[in-house]
Amino acid sequence: MDGLAWQAAFVSGLAEIDQEHQALLAMLQQLRSAIAAGATFSQVKSQLLACASETQRHFQHEETLMAAANHPLYLSHRAAHQNLLRDLSGVLEEVQEHPTKLTPETIEAIGNLVLRHIREEDLPMLYLLTHPEELARQQAAELTAENVF
Ligand SMILES: [Fe+2]
């Protein structure tokens, strides 16, 4: 099975976010095919940069939704996004300096980071966004915890 394929298990229930996740994975799949077919770094550079900027835009979208909902995971999720963007720009810098290091496996590695984020960090975060009662319960629990100090 294609490790970068969209799976039913990634559905969060928030259609706009699921569409963005799907689009990001599709971009990575296209990049990987192009590179596997022999495309060089300079031939896919604009696609790579577009993928990076879409990722950034998508993270901002999630952060905006989280901020509006006063989401209890906002700070930790934003930190996870910053870490992921740092990893991605590390890979981009690496292949910019050494274009021959850009292989289908490079794209797989980026895809795996993105997929891990979706599975382990987005899904629990999005669960709260799509379940207002649970979100309210956790917000109340946070306030109670704050009152202890
Ligand atoms: Fe996220």
UniProtKB/TrEMBL annotation:
Record carries keyword Iron: yes
The entry's keywords: Iron, Metal-binding
SUPFAM superfamilies: Hemerythrin-like
Ranges for domain Hemerythrin-like: 13-124
UniProt entry tagged with the keyword Metal-binding: yes
Pfam annotation, one family: Hemerythrin
Gene Ontology molecular function, alphabetical: metal ion binding
Domain of life of the organism encoding this protein: Bacteria
Family: Belongs to the hemerythrin family.
Record PANTHER family: BACTERIOHEMERYTHRIN
Annotated protein name in UniProt: Hemerythrin family protein
Protein's organism: Thermosynechococcus sichuanensis E542
Lineage of producing organism: Bacteria, Bacillati, Cyanobacteriota, Cyanophyceae, Acaryochloridales
